Every structure is written in C-alpha cells, then in structure tokens.
Amino acid sequence: MDKRDAKILVVDDEDGIREGLCEYLSLEGYAAEGARSAEEALQMECSRFDLLLLDVMMEGMDGFELARRLKQSADTASLPVIFLTAKDTDDDMVAGLRLGADDYIAKPFSMKNVIARIEAVLRRVKPLDVPQKAGVECDRESLRCRVDNRDVKLPRKEFEILALMLEHPGRIFSREELMERIWPDDVVVTDRTVDVHITRIRSKISPYGKSIVSRSGYGYGWQE
Description:
By secondary structure, the protein is an alpha/beta fold. It has helices at about 15-25, 40, 65-70, 90-100, 110-125, 155-165, 175-180, 190-205, and strands at about 5-10, 30-35, 50-55, 80-85, 105, 135-140, 145, 150, 170-175, 210-215, 220. The strands form 3 sheets. Strands 2-1-3-4-5 form a 5-stranded parallel sheet, with helices on both faces. The protein has a 3-stranded antiparallel sheet with strand order 6-7-8, with helices on one face. It has a 3-stranded antiparallel sheet with strand order 9-11-10. β10 and β11 (about 220) form a beta hairpin. α6 (about 155-165) packs across α8 (about 190-205). The model has no long low-confidence stretch (mean pLDDT about 85).
C-alpha cells in the first residue's frame, strides 16, 4: 500500500499526543484523523481507515473495549490496531494481543518508532502496491519478454524480431531487412518465413498483437 493511500485514525484523550501524532503522520505522507475518545471513534465510520492507533487508558470506554467492539463487527474485524499505552506490563501486552492487536507501543515513544511500527504492520496486512508495467517489453540482457508484467516465452528469432521493432517504434522494416538482421547469411529464408514468425508473435503478445502493423508489399513495424 502506498502511504498516500493509507488512512490512520488516532484515538487518544491526551490532546498533545493525539494532535502531535496526526501532524507527524501527515508530514510522513499519511492521511491522519484524530478522535478524543473511544465513543467519538465509534461515530467516525472506522471501516474507512486502514489502521488504528489506540490509547488504552482513556476516560469512559477504554481502548481494550473499543478494540473488542471493532473486532466483533464484520466491517472492522480486520482493521489493524496498534495500542498506545503508558502501561508496559506483560499482562497488558498479552491482553491487547489476545484482542487481535497487531502491535503494542509503550509511552513515552519516539515518533520514528511509531512510524516504523505502522509501516511494518501495513506491509504485513496490506502489502505495498507494486506498480505494474503495462504493455510489451523485451530485455536483451535477460532475454525476457514481458506482457503486462507477465513473462511470455518466445523462441530466439521471434524475440529478436519483436525486440528490434520495439527499439524502433514507428519504423517499418522490410521483409528483406528483417531477414538480413535476424537470420545468418548461410540460412535460406523466404518472405513467408517472416510472415509466419510475425503471426506467431502477434498471437503470443495478445492483446498487443495489433501493435505490429504491416505495410502491404513492404514489411512490418511496431506502432502503439
């Protein structure tokens, strides 16, 4: 998940801590909102958030009870929760984890530590988005052809024809030029050989086969 898409709700009844966390999270690229109490958080449609920073000791409903309610609701059962607390005993930590918390941070804490914990939880529950490269590419170093980021196996001649055209988009190669570039001098090939290879390439790189254009009586080229 790109942090620009991550929405975090900070629930803490201490104004300085809540506002400081929201400000720092915003500077780090997150969309952060705050709630002064568990009751206020329940009114904020928690399902729209990607992670909850939750103080344990609050007036009224405490953080454990809020987490329990969220985990019992189908809309928020999978919402990642990181507890923030001044109590760092093993019993409290175990209690929080048994409620389904993803992490537990004791006060006082450093902002850098909080950010590191958030990033770790988001990576675990919602992997970072990996940009997918759309289209067709041929890498001459690895000899790999990829279509929409998936590998496509091409025999050597088909790979070389496609790579050549991709390297010169818009240019039309005559059949004779393709034969000279792709096949060694001691191999006898015909125009038909080139046509068959082009047909096979078009089929294998679907839906981009139409990007290999033909010019009647001349040859082929790549056109986006």
